[in-house]
Design brief:
With about 375 residues, this protein is mainly α. It has 11 helices and 2 strands; from the N terminus they run ααααββααααααα. The chain has a two-stranded antiparallel ribbon with strand order 1-2.
C-alpha cells in the first residue's frame, strides 16, 4: 500500500507546499505581533514573513495571470478579481477593529483618542487609505502612534499589494517582460537602501511609508522571475526541502538585522523554488491546502481580534503566556470561521462577476455608421 504522505499529487498545477509555508508564516506573524505587544518578544524576526508574502505574491500572480493578461484580460476584470479575493476579509477585519476601538472608547480607556480622530480612522480604513495622523491609538495594554491603519495594522501590506498588482498588470499589458537582471538589480538596490537607512521593515508606519514602495516592487518582481525560471530547478526529495524551510522559520527567532536580510535575500528564494517543485502526497497536500486557506483570514484579522480581545476579555489578568494562548486561540478560531464566510461571499461575488462578463460579451458591438456625403 502506498503511504498517503508520499503518494503522487492529484493536482500538479497547485503549489501545495507554498500554501503550507504561507499558512505557517501567517501564524508566525500573529505570534510576533501578540508577543511584541506583551513584552514577551517571541519570534522577533517574524516580520520578515511579510517579505516572504510579497515574493510569494509575485510568484502566484505570475502563474495565475500573465497568460490571461496577455490573452486580453481587461484592467477592470483584473481589478475586480483581485478585489473579490482580498476585500471581503479586509473589510470584516477593519469592522472588527472599529468595533474594538469603539468599545475601548466607550470604556473610557482610549486615552486622548477623540471622536473626530476615531471616525476619520474608520472612513480611511474602509477605503484602504493610509492614515498619516500622529494620534495615539489603543494597542493592547498600551498605545501606538504613526500606524497607517490603526484599526487593522497589517493592512499596510495589503495597500502595497494592490499597488504592485496594478503595476504588474500594466507591465504585462504593455507586453514587457520581467527578466532576472531586473529582479537582481532591484533586490540589490533594496538591500543597499535598507542597509543605509537602517530600516529593514519599512512601509508599515508614517515615518517609513515611502520606503515600502521599493520593498514591495523588488520582492514581487523577484517572485515573478522565480516563477518563470522554476522549471530549471530539479525536483528534490521532501527531506532537504523541509530542512531548508525549517531553517527559514528558525531565523524568525533571531532579531538580528543581518540574519533577517540573509533570510529575505538568499534563503527565501531558495526555499520558494525548492518547495514549488515539491510533490506532496494526499495527507500533506490536504494539510498544506488548509494552511493556505487559513493564511489570509488569520493575517488580515488577527490584530483586530487582538484589540477586541483586550477590550472584552481583560486578558491582563492572565499570565503573559496564558494571554498569548487565549488571544492566539481566539484569533485562530475567528480565522477558521472566516474561511467559510469568505468562501460564501466570494462565491456570490464571482457569480455576479461572471454574469456581468457574460452580459458584456454577448452585447453587440456598436455599429459604425457611414459618414454622410458632403454636399458638392
Amino acid at each position: 500500500m502506498t503511504d498517503p504522505l508520499l503518494a503522487p499529487p492529484q493536482n500538479a498545477n497547485r503549489f501545495d507546499a507554498l500554501d503550507g509555508i504561507r499558512g505557517l508564516a501567517a501564524i508566525a506573524v500573529m505570534v510576533y505581533h501578540f508577543t511584541s505587544h506583551q513584552s514577551l518578544g517571541y519570534l522577533p524576526g517574524a516580520w520578515a514573513a511579510v517579505d516572504l508574502f510579497f515574493i510569494l505574491s509575485g510568484f502566484v500572480l505570475a502563474h495565475s495571470y500573465i497568460h490571461k493578461i496577455q490573452g486580453g484580460l481587461s484592467a477592470w476584470r483584473f481589478a475586480a478579481l483581485r478585489l473579490i479575493r482580498l476585500a471581503p476579509l479586509y473589510l470584516i477585519g477593519t469592522g472588527i477593529g472599529a468595533l474594538a476601538m469603539g468599545l475601548i472608547w466607550w470604556q473610557g480607556e482610549a486615552g486622548s483618542l477623540g471622536a473626530v480622530t476615531y471616525w476619520r480612522g474608520v472612513v480611511l480604513g474602509v477605503l484602504l487609505v493610509p492614515n498619516f495622523d500622529l494620534s495615539e491609538w489603543p494597542s493592547g495594554a498600551g498605545f501606538q502612534g504613526g500606524v497607517l491603519f490603526p484599526l487593522n495594522p497589517p493592512a499596510w501590506s495589503l495597500f502595497f499589494e494592490l499597488f504592485v498588482n496594478a503595476c504588474f498588470f500594466a507591465f504585462i499589458a504593455w507586453r514587457l517582460r520581467i527578466r532576472w537582471p531586473l529582479a537582481v538589480l532591484m533586490m540589490v538596490g533594496l538591500a543597499w537602501l535598507e542597509h543605509h537607512l537602517h530600516e529593514v521593515n519599512p512601509g508599515w508606519g508614517r515615518w517609513n511609508f515611502f520606503h515600502g514602495f521599493p520593498r514591495v516592487i523588488a520582492e514581487f518582481t523577484l517572485g515573478a522571475v522565480l516563477h518563470h525560471h522554476r522549471h530549471r530547478v530539479p525536483r528534490i526529495h521532501w527531506a532537504p526541502a523541509a530542512l531548508l524551510t525549517a531553517g527559514l522559520f528558525a531565523l524568525f527567532f533571531m532579531g538580528d538585522r543581518t540574519a533577517t536580510m540573509l533570510e529575505v535575500f538568499v534563503l527565501a528564494p531558495i526555499v520558494l523554488l525548492c518547495n514549488a517543485r515539491l510533490e506532496l502526497g494526499d495527507v500533506a497536500q490536504r494539510a498544506c491546502h488548509w494552511l493556505g486557506e487559513l493564511s489570509y483570514p488569520l493575517y488580515i484579522t488577527h490584530m483586530p481580534v487582538f484589540f477586541l480581545g483586550h477590550a472584552a476579555l481583560e486578558p491582563e489578568r492572565f499570565e503573559p503566556l496564558s494571554r498569548l494562548l487565549v488571544l492566539g486561540g481566539l484569533a485562530l478560531l475567528v480565522a477558521i470561521a472566516l474561511i467559510h464566510v469568505d468562501r460564501a461571499v466570494r462565491r456570490r461575488l464571482m457569480a455576479r462577476y461572471h454574469a456581468r462578463c457574460q452580459a458584456q460579451d454577448r452585447a453587440p458591438a456598436p455599429l459604425k455608421t457611414a459618414a454622410s456625403p458632403r454636399p458638392k
